[in-house]
Amino acid sequence: PDRVAWSAGPADVAVAAKALAHRTDEEAVALLARLAEWTSTAVLVEASRPDNLSPHAAEAALHAYTATGSPLRDSAAVAALAERSGWRVERTVALGWGTEATVLRRA
Length: 107
Known about the structure:
Mean pLDDT: 87
Order of helices and strands: EHEHHEE
CATH class of the domain at 12-43 and 71-107: Alpha Beta
Shape: globular
């Protein structure tokens, strides 16, 4: 989050696509807390599991692990990060290919 020059203002909704995948848990919590300064609703689009149809599924899982020291975050892990930064999960929608959209509201 500190590498980007943020210049956002109040918004109805914030969308963060693949924004948590290469961040540690602490970095992800900081990003989510920053989003909360601008909006009361956020949508996270993240890969929650490797796409098992892909011949590169194991490689994708390994990349996730080496980037953050953790495997791909499933729905429960994303929800835990959201709760740590003051959000609650309203719903999770499967988008396919191992990707989910998680709708967050300020707690």
